[in-house]
Recover the amino acids of this structure.
Protein backbone atom coordinates (compact mmCIF):
# COMPACT_ATOMS: atom_id res chain seq x y z
CA UNK A 1 0.00 0.00 0.00
CA UNK A 2 1.24 3.45 -0.95
CA UNK A 3 1.25 6.07 1.82
CA UNK A 4 0.08 9.40 0.35
CA UNK A 5 0.28 12.84 1.95
CA UNK A 6 -0.50 16.31 0.59
CA UNK A 7 1.64 19.24 1.67
CA UNK A 8 2.10 22.88 0.84
CA UNK A 9 5.58 23.90 -0.26
CA UNK A 10 6.47 25.53 3.07
CA UNK A 11 5.46 22.34 4.92
CA UNK A 12 8.01 20.19 3.06
CA UNK A 13 11.12 19.20 4.95
CA UNK A 14 14.45 19.65 3.21
CA UNK A 15 14.71 15.86 2.89
CA UNK A 16 11.21 15.56 1.39
CA UNK A 17 11.97 18.30 -1.14
CA UNK A 18 15.26 16.62 -2.04
CA UNK A 19 13.51 13.25 -2.49
CA UNK A 20 10.80 14.81 -4.68
CA UNK A 21 13.33 16.58 -6.89
CA UNK A 22 15.40 13.41 -7.14
CA UNK A 23 12.36 11.41 -8.33
CA UNK A 24 11.41 14.11 -10.84
CA UNK A 25 14.98 14.20 -12.15
CA UNK A 26 15.16 10.38 -12.35
CA UNK A 27 11.93 10.18 -14.36
CA UNK A 28 11.83 13.32 -16.49
CA UNK A 29 15.50 14.05 -17.12
CA UNK A 30 17.40 10.75 -16.89
CA UNK A 31 14.81 8.13 -17.87
CA UNK A 32 13.20 10.22 -20.60
CA UNK A 33 16.55 11.65 -21.71
CA UNK A 34 15.09 15.15 -21.75
CA UNK A 35 17.01 18.24 -20.78
CA UNK A 36 14.48 20.76 -19.47
CA UNK A 37 14.07 23.23 -16.63
CA UNK A 38 12.25 21.24 -13.95
CA UNK A 39 12.81 23.95 -11.35
CA UNK A 40 10.38 26.38 -12.95
CA UNK A 41 9.64 28.62 -9.97
CA UNK A 42 6.11 27.22 -9.58
CA UNK A 43 6.65 24.71 -6.78
CA UNK A 44 5.99 27.34 -4.10
CA UNK A 45 2.43 27.83 -5.42
CA UNK A 46 1.71 24.10 -5.73
CA UNK A 47 0.33 21.51 -3.37
CA UNK A 48 2.59 18.47 -3.39
CA UNK A 49 1.06 14.99 -3.43
CA UNK A 50 3.71 12.58 -2.22
CA UNK A 51 3.48 8.80 -2.36
CA UNK A 52 5.94 6.84 -0.21
CA UNK A 53 6.70 3.17 0.23
CA UNK A 54 9.04 2.14 3.06
CA UNK A 55 9.89 5.83 3.65
CA UNK A 56 11.01 6.30 0.02
CA UNK A 57 9.27 8.74 -2.35
CA UNK A 58 8.13 6.54 -5.24
CA UNK A 59 5.18 8.55 -6.64
CA UNK A 60 4.46 12.26 -6.88
CA UNK A 61 2.34 14.99 -8.44
CA UNK A 62 1.92 18.68 -7.87
CA UNK A 63 -1.45 20.39 -8.09
CA UNK A 64 -2.45 23.99 -8.67
CA UNK A 65 -5.58 25.96 -7.94
CA UNK A 66 -7.26 27.74 -10.86
CA UNK A 67 -5.16 30.61 -12.16
CA UNK A 68 -1.82 29.47 -10.73
CA UNK A 69 -0.83 27.40 -13.78
CA UNK A 70 -3.84 27.17 -16.12
CA UNK A 71 -7.22 28.90 -15.84
CA UNK A 72 -8.49 25.58 -14.48
CA UNK A 73 -7.17 23.52 -11.57
CA UNK A 74 -4.31 21.36 -12.77
CA UNK A 75 -2.18 18.33 -11.98
CA UNK A 76 1.36 18.04 -13.24
CA UNK A 77 4.82 16.52 -12.77
CA UNK A 78 3.15 13.11 -12.45
CA UNK A 79 5.98 10.71 -11.69
CA UNK A 80 6.27 7.12 -10.49
CA UNK A 81 9.67 5.51 -10.02
CA UNK A 82 10.19 2.92 -12.77
CA UNK A 83 10.72 0.10 -10.25
CA UNK A 84 7.28 0.78 -8.72
CA UNK A 85 4.99 1.23 -11.77
CA UNK A 86 3.85 -2.39 -11.77
CA UNK A 87 1.94 -1.85 -8.52
CA UNK A 88 -0.62 0.63 -9.88
CA UNK A 89 0.85 3.57 -7.96
CA UNK A 90 0.26 5.86 -10.95
CA UNK A 91 -3.48 5.47 -10.57
CA UNK A 92 -3.21 5.72 -6.78
CA UNK A 93 -1.28 9.01 -6.86
CA UNK A 94 -3.55 10.46 -9.58
CA UNK A 95 -6.74 9.53 -7.73
CA UNK A 96 -5.32 11.09 -4.56
CA UNK A 97 -4.44 14.20 -6.60
CA UNK A 98 -7.94 14.43 -8.12
CA UNK A 99 -9.42 14.04 -4.63
CA UNK A 100 -7.08 16.73 -3.27
CA UNK A 101 -8.09 19.15 -6.05
CA UNK A 102 -11.77 18.61 -5.19
CA UNK A 103 -11.17 18.92 -1.43
CA UNK A 104 -8.98 22.02 -1.64
CA UNK A 105 -10.42 23.89 -4.65
CA UNK A 106 -13.93 22.50 -5.14
CA UNK A 107 -15.45 20.24 -7.77
CA UNK A 108 -14.30 21.84 -10.94
CA UNK A 109 -12.46 21.13 -14.14
CA UNK A 110 -8.94 19.75 -13.96
CA UNK A 111 -6.60 20.39 -16.88
CA UNK A 112 -3.45 18.40 -17.58
CA UNK A 113 -0.73 18.48 -20.20
CA UNK A 114 -0.31 14.73 -20.70
CA UNK A 115 2.44 12.90 -22.51
CA UNK A 116 0.63 11.48 -25.53
CA UNK A 117 1.63 7.87 -24.86
CA UNK A 118 -0.28 8.07 -21.54
CA UNK A 119 -3.60 9.08 -23.16
CA UNK A 120 -5.26 5.72 -22.28
CA UNK A 121 -4.03 5.93 -18.67
CA UNK A 122 -5.58 9.39 -18.17
CA UNK A 123 -8.76 8.46 -20.08
CA UNK A 124 -9.30 5.64 -17.58
CA UNK A 125 -9.20 8.29 -14.84
CA UNK A 126 -11.96 10.30 -16.55
CA UNK A 127 -9.89 12.80 -18.56
CA UNK A 128 -10.93 13.66 -22.12
CA UNK A 129 -8.67 14.82 -24.95
CA UNK A 130 -9.01 18.49 -25.92
CA UNK A 131 -7.24 19.70 -29.05
CA UNK A 132 -4.31 18.35 -31.00
CA UNK A 133 -0.97 16.84 -30.01
CA UNK A 134 1.89 19.29 -29.49
CA UNK A 135 5.55 19.13 -28.54
CA UNK A 136 6.65 20.20 -25.08
CA UNK A 137 10.37 19.91 -24.36
CA UNK A 138 10.66 17.68 -27.41
CA UNK A 139 8.08 15.15 -26.14
CA UNK A 140 4.59 14.72 -27.70
CA UNK A 141 1.85 15.96 -25.36
CA UNK A 142 -1.94 16.42 -25.46
CA UNK A 143 -4.24 18.64 -23.41
CA UNK A 144 -6.80 16.70 -21.39
CA UNK A 145 -9.66 17.87 -19.18
CA UNK A 146 -11.63 16.15 -16.41
CA UNK A 147 -14.97 17.78 -15.72
Amino acid sequence: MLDIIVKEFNELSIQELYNILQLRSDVFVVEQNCVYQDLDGKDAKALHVIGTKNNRVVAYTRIFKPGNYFDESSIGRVAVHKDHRKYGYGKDIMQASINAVHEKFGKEKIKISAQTYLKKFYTELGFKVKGEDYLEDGIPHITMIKE
Q: What stands out?
A: The chain has a mean pLDDT of 96. The CA atoms of residues 1 and 25 lie 24 Å apart.
